[in-house]
Amino acid sequence: MLHRSFTEEQHMFRDAYRKFLAVEIVPHMESWREAGIVDREAFLRAGERGFLMVWPDEVYGGMGDPDFRFEQIIIEETTYARAADWYNTLHSRLVGPYLTRFGNEQQCQRMLPGCVSGEKILAIAMTEPDAGSDLAGMRCAATEYDDHWLLNGSKVYISNGINADIVIVAAKTDPDNNPHHMTLFLVERGMEGFERGRNLKKMGLKAQDTAELFFNDVKVPKANVLGEPGKGFHYLMEGLAEERLLGAVGYLSAAQLSWDLTLEFVQQRKAFGKPIAAFQNTQFKLAELRTELDFAQAFVDQCVAAFNVGKLTAVDAAKAKLATSELQVKVADVGVQLHGGAGYMDEYPISRQYTDAKISTIYAGSSEVMKIIISRDFLGEDYLPFNIRNF
Ligand SMILES: Cc1cc2nc3c(=O)[nH]c(=O)nc-3n(C[C@H](O)[C@H](O)[C@H](O)COP(=O)(O)OP(=O)(O)OC[C@H]3O[C@@H](n4cnc5c(N)ncnc54)[C@H](O)[C@@H]3O)c2cc1C
Questions:
Q1: CB 154 within 8 A of CB 212
Q2: Of 129, 219, 309, 390, most Cβ neighbours within 10 A?
Q3: Substitution site in 93, 95, 355, 363 for ligand 1 pocket (most atoms within 8 Å of beta carbon)
């Protein structure tokens, strides 16, 4: 029997958040999907109720409780409620911590309270048309002047790209062209030369705005440099273990939902006079997946516990990301198969589970990149096909 460890307070937090989702978020998801973007109100409503950014200190409006399990609850519940494409976690826990981790007091005081309340929405922009897995290949660049940097370039596939008020933009900043010399800039809505391109149409996660961003001679004040110039690449790598843990928690919850939806369906649907659940093929498939889900949950919960005491390694986070994202895709695939034709229809939620799942093995570091990280750990750098310092 899988034992999961949450405190009484966390159980109450889960109940309250679940109710919040049911009333304030879930009823709007379909119209947000049609619009291709979540209404900004969603962030404000979550902010009002204290569910948006729970981790910052009380002085910034947060709960000041660093226990990752609160975040785990938010991600699990949001995903299980089929609201993963609200993308609150990208704002709250993936991008938000960059401010406290690398930002100065003045930046935190100016920006964090609005992020906690939901008035300001966050995004992070690394990927470019010619640079995804290979971040060092980016072309976006900034040149230093007396009181500002001049930023030029473009980014693509940026989550919350249309809604974002503050975008952390990674750009090359070395006049000598060292590919790993990057700086992170806090680019704000309204800065001259900062423009949004298309809100891109996607296979899944339809409510989430994924956009192109353009920077044409954007004058970024020095006060908007995040951390030290030149250390951006290192900062991005530092956040990756946490980012992959966030991902793993969500992918697993999505996989769990697909399994539950399928279990319910196969008990109701009949063929040859019997429920689909009565066929041994169905039972064996579901039994295999049930086992894999429980194993994955135990590993992810262990990663959360390790993260809470500062001991989650990049390699374990990569294993968690790899296993859960692949499992999410697999459970959705089996789920659609066991639904038959119904599984291909929009009106059956398993269909969306399938199209939403595929991106999990690609972003936040693809499965191939995760395998490089894991094999580098047991083989060492000598066996790498080329000099990879990017992951
Ligand atoms: C919905 C969505 C949201 C996103 N949100 C954001 C965001 O908010 N911010 C942001 O910056 N980016 C975002 N991205 C971009 C995402 O992180 C990249 O798409 C991802 O990193 C992969 O990069 P790529 O698309 O350039 O693929 P590529 O890097 O071109 O990879 C193509 C294929 O080659 C494989 N490959 C690459 N290198 C190797 C190697 N060394 N060995 C073996 N195989 C390799 C990859 O695994 C993949 O299968 C988002 C993407 C999507 C689709």
A1: yes
A2: 390
A3: 363
